[in-house]
Amino acid sequence: MTDMTNPTDAREPCFDIARPGHVEMPTDRHGESLDSFTRVYGLKPPGEDATSACLRARDAYEFATPKLTRAGTTGVGHIGYRTASPQALARRVSAEGGARLGGVPGGAAPVPLVFEGLAGSMCGALLPSGRHVDMIGGVACTLIDNGMPCVILDARAMGLRGDETRKALDAHEALKARLESIRLMAGPLMALGDAGAQSVPKMTLVPAPRTGGAIATRSFIPHRCRATIGVFAAVSVATACTLGEGPAVALAVLPEGERFAVEHPGAAAEVLIRRDAAGRVTGAGTLRTARKLFEGRVFPRA
């Protein structure tokens, strides 16, 4: 992972961010998620109530780092970062108002996070079928994995405008049945095997952007329409926009720089796509912000 201070000159490595300080993760399978973190990873819940569970690693000096919160979808919510020094904190908050994220009030210091080696994270290749376009169930699809396996298809091919609400799409049983049929056929093509019991691949419908972004989305994971889009699913969608052909290519409005806004029902996800001279994606990630939450002195008891 490369952590870069200046989003306009994002080539110089920087180590201001020491580590995550707090991560809140919404989950629609709270019991299963809690069991995985406690039984498999060995974390302990020092605090738990009906809506959330705080988790702590053995010998960790913070009360809790991950926090699982019951929700209708699964993903990553609030992230708090710890800086390497007071000077690093000052640098991180010096750009107050400089970066804005869709759905988040106000502006804050930009924290671009770019990753390398995402291609084929689960499928073994960026395009696991070896093609930009596969016809599945009579629908042109891009099967792609740049951090998250996704099946990308034109919303119009499913009889949709692409601006339907999440609630309307969730109630569209015929649509969900057709998407599931395509998803099950895509599984073996993506080296995922039988996708019936898996949450991947994600099904992503793409219409043309409507609010100034690069592309718009409606995502199903796996059978429910999501209110937003996950970070790495957004990375895969943005990467699909840069291919030679495909549903996303035909609809995308490519930005001049590295910053791709991937629209979703809630707002837009900020994706950073780094390409070489030939246009191939060499790195991808997301834009986050850092805000000063508090400042002062602590006087522990002697």
Automatic annotation (TrEMBL):
Keyword Nucleus: no
UniProt-recorded Gene Ontology molecular function terms: isomerase activity
Protein's UniProt keywords contain Hydrolase: no
Domain of life of the source: Bacteria
Keywords, sorted A to Z: Isomerase
Pfam families attached to this UniProt entry: PrpF
Family assignment from sequence similarity: Belongs to the PrpF family.
PANTHER family xref list: ACONITATE ISOMERASE-RELATED, ISOMERASE YBHH-RELATED
Protein name: PrpF protein
